[in-house]
Each structure stands twice: as C-alpha cells, then as structure tokens.
Amino acid sequence: MRPPYLLLDVDGILIPFPNADGSTPATHTRHDVVPADRSAEDPVTIWLDPEHGRLLLDIIRSGLFTPVWCTSWRQDAATLIGPLLGLPDLPYVDLPRPQITTSHPNGYLWKRDHVDAWLGDTPAIWIDDDFTDLDHVWAAERTAAGMATFLVQPDPHLGLRPEHLAEAVCRASQLQKFRAA
User: For the chain, which terminal residue's Cβ has fewer other Cβ atoms within 10 angstroms, N or C?
Assistant: First the structure.
C-alpha cells in the first residue's frame, strides 16, 4: 500500500507572513524569485528558513510519506522553492486559479475540493495554515470512511516548526503500524 501523501503548502508554512511591523523570523533568509507568470523585472521577494530543507529531507528519506506540493505556487514550488531548500523535485497538485476574493469562499479552504478529488482514497497528512472548522470535519469524515486524513496547521506568522513535522511523522508511523496489523 502506498504511504500517505504529505501535502505541503508554501505561504504561511515555508514562507511565513510578516508580522504587523513587517518583520519575519530571524531564521529566514531573503530570496528574490521569478514565478512562471512574472517577468524577471518583477521578482517576488520571499523568506525561507534553510533548516526547513534539512528537516524536510529527513522525513522524505524516512519513506513514511509521498511528499507533494499543495500550494497556489503550483509548479513554481518544485522549480523555485524546493531547489532553494535543497529538496528533490517533488510532484505538485495542479490546483486551479479560481477567481475568488477569500481563501474560504464556501466556508472552507478553497483547495479542499480539488485535493479531495486528487487524493481519491489515499491517506494524507496535510500541512497548511488556512484550515477552517469545516476542513477539520472533512478530514474526520474521510478518516471515518477509511481514508485517514490528518491536518497540521502552523501559525502563519511562524511557519513550519519541528513539532509540526514530528506530528506528521507520528501520524504516518501510526498509519504504517495500522496497515501492518
């Protein structure tokens, strides 16, 4: 049986949102990147923690997960973000570009319906900063239906922390033991 997907968001997870004073965590390094839909004269400034690359590589190498980008960065996560962190080329969920003014147009994260269809019956551990209560209900319903789904929700101003990855590893280990039984 395939390991669970580890769905990784970027904004608010690897790229923390600035605090009210515009500051970002001191652990993060500035990079200017050029996403596919922008020109070199109009780069996007991001801040990444180089430690995230090592932490993510460790859990990717564990074999407990099938890591996948699940972000509005789409393929740019694989071609821009991943290499800056020293990550291997990872697949991505090809999310649409909806014309929305909120990330919760139906009361839940806009990505969820696309992710649900993409996952099929595969278990998943999804790390994103923008879940609502309805997303947690969806995850519980998938889990009750035999498709274990766990949501990990970091603070978007702090981003991914080692304890979030420890939680993901714990969940994946539990799934592995359950499947082996």
Answer: C
Supply φ then ψ for residue 46, to 5 degrees.
-130, 165
Other CB atoms within 10 A of residue 116 CB: 14
Q: Which helix (H) or strand (E) holds 85?
A: helix 82-85
Helix (H, G, I), strand (E, B) or coil at 166: helix
Q: How far apart are alpha carbons 108 and 122 in whole angstroms?
A: 21
Please check whether residue 164 is in contact with residue 45, taking contact to mean a CB–CB distance below 8 angstroms: no
Spatial distance between the Cα atoms of 62 and 57, rounded to a whole number of angstroms: 9
Please state, for a pLDDT cut of 90, what percent of the chain lies above it. 82
Q: Specify burial of residue 104 (Cβ count, 10 A radius: 0-12, 13-18, 19+).
A: middle
- Six-digit token string for 44: 């996007």
Residue 132 near residue 109, CB atoms below 8 Å: yes
> Would the CA dihedral through 163, 164, 170, 176 be positive or negative?
negative
Residues 98 and 111: their CA atoms lie apart, in Å, by 10
pLDDT tens for each residue of 133-143 = 999 999 999 99
